[in-house]
Amino acid sequence: MVTDAPPIVSGIPVHMTQGVHFTAPLAFLVEGVGPPPEPASHFTGTINWGDGTTSAGLIEAVPGGEWVVGSHAYANAGPYTITLTIHTASGLTAVGSTEAFDPPPPAGPLQHPPHVPVRHHPKPVHAPAHPKSAPAHEATHHGRIG
What domains lie within the chain, and their CATH numbers? Predict the structure, then answer.
């Protein structure tokens, strides 16, 4: 005799931005070993978004199990704990959770590092190998000055 078992609900963290509507997979459902897999229509889901609101989750078949997909917009910055309650057509219930989190805030205005003086090194002076090979502009003037 094959018996039905509740699925395992494995939460998927969600990246959210305050005030921006998103649709995302929130959990992956894995059915127990033994009985043949159930179609996605065997499951229903409720999503508690952690901000006082709930909605129905959309169950979509994917290779190896099902996704629980939800759509939401948070009025305030996160993070939020999302609780997913999954019911099977045979009356079993499974619960899982995940998190909706804000991206880290920008580092703020770019700050220039404090002024560090630059050392200027004198240009190396290269003496000609032989005095007669000195360029004309380096030749000395012999004679009386004025």
Answer: 8-101 (2.60.40.10)
**One-letter amino acid of 38:** E
Contacts 24+ apart (CB under 8 A), 8-13: 8/32, 8/94, 8/96, 9/68, 9/84, 9/86, 9/94, 9/95, 9/96, 10/96, 11/82, 11/84, 11/96, 11/97, 11/98, 11/99, 12/98, 13/98, 13/99, 13/100, 13/101
**Residues ≥6 apart with Cβ < 8 Å to 59:** 29, 40, 41, 43, 44, 45, 66, 67, 68, 69
Average pLDDT in the 54-79 region?
95
d(CA 61, CA 68) in angstroms, rounded, equals 9
User: What confidence tens digit (pLDDT) does each residue in 94-138 have?
Assistant: 999 999 998 776 666 655 455 545 455 455 555 555 555 445 544
Residue 137 three-state SS: helix
pLDDT at residue number 5:
80
Amino acid at 139: A
